[in-house]
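Comment thread on ticket #2218

A.B. wrote:
> Attaching the input chain for the structure job we discussed in standup.
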Amino acid sequence: MIININCTFVDNKPIRISNQVLIASNVQIYTSAHPTSAEERLVQDWKEKETAFFRTYALPVEIQDHVWIGGGSIILPGVTIGENSVIGVPAWLLFVDFRFFLS
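C.D. wrote:
> Ran it. Output below, let me know if you need it in another format.
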């Protein structure tokens, strides 16, 4: 595995990186995020409950064998990148199972 400079990994859940993976510079991999709906994201009466005013969630990310992730790509929670995949520059992958198998 090669990880270039200035990459960000937010690992509230596992980030599984398999064999012979190339990760270019400025790649961001996130396992946590906030719901997009304000009703789901914000906590009512958060001061009285003595908790944070927002909710988050986390899902694992898996990068399988022989993957190349191009510079500036952003991988969001719950993504699986299948064997031999090439992720373009820049790409945003969110909540998908991305697989590209070379013949």
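A.B. wrote:
> Thanks. Noting for the ticket: The chain has a mean pLDDT of 89.
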